[in-house]
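WARN no homologs supplied; continuing
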Amino acid sequence: MRVCLVGGIFDRGESYQRQVAFLTEPLLAAGLRARGVDVVTAGHHAFVPEDGFDVVHVHHIGKGALRMATAPYGAKFVYTAHDNPRLLDPEWTAGHSILRTRILATRLLLSRADAIVALTKYEQDYMRSLFVEHSAKIRIIPNGLPSDVFFPAGDARKPTTNRRYKILYVGQLIPLKGLDVLLEAVRHVADRYDVELLLVYHNAALEEECTQRTRELGLVDRVQFLGIKSGRELAELYRDVDMHVLPSFTESLPGVITEAMLSGLPVVASAVGGVPEQVGRHARLVEPGNVAELAAAIERTLDDIAEGKIDPVEIRDYARSQFRTEVMVERHLRLYEELAQSKSGPVRRQVRYRPANAAAQFALTAIGATAQGRGWLEG
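OK structure emitted
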């Protein structure tokens, strides 16, 4: 079988790819190759559809996805959005022209795809409610991670004795992540516990605002802005902290929670998107934006840690059973084999789509990257 994986990560340089070594696309490519699959990788901007592939799997919306959706060749087309599906809800995105453009583009992609991969049942159900006509195409395959990187064999979590409790946040410094709520909650928790908040992020949009808020709350000596960490550095950091907190207002299947759980960490997170099904019974979930509830959940988790009620191995084993790279690769391989062996042709080659496909191909060539790629779709 010959498979092409298309994703934005493959447009980036090797140094960046090494920093984010645990993203789905490179892990999937490596896992498929280990299973004997002939895999070609391409970035959205470099990808050009051609004959010779059994399956082309495009990750994220972008130029490569639109090219594949209208390509005349015989490969089956699989699409994974990696987005919170609420961004595709016209009511939720009212007034945001860029998001409306994403909805239109997504409708085109879903109509032409032979299979659509959702990361969670929440995403599957939500997408089915928005795009009823494409319900049968949507499969659930959660992202996977290399479990032994985060919890090596024989490793043991460091006991918290005579030192500050360390709370870790990993994500972007953007409004949807609820950093203002987290800082307020830490201020309340500091009345009972000696705590320190570590912030790891690759998007520093709100760094100045968060730094100012830290000063206003009197948390300067309790908050560290660590910036970007490589995958290996982050794995070490997970083993050196006591808990992970993600107070987002919206999520799909956040990889940072999977990483934390594979590290045996207790988690406190907002009950949004696919997070409740992701964590099972191994986390405390709170209402997004509720400072008091978040602070209380952090305190109760610290109580459990202090009383020895947290079992890191149990948390790790649950995460391994659901989110190992090998599980993700196997599920994708079964999907690819099913599509490749199907006698029906690609959906996008149906006669009813040909005029629109021809127009879309012309637009992609004539308009260029200004109107899509980094413009319309990735803004």
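The chain is about 40% helix and 15% strand.
OK
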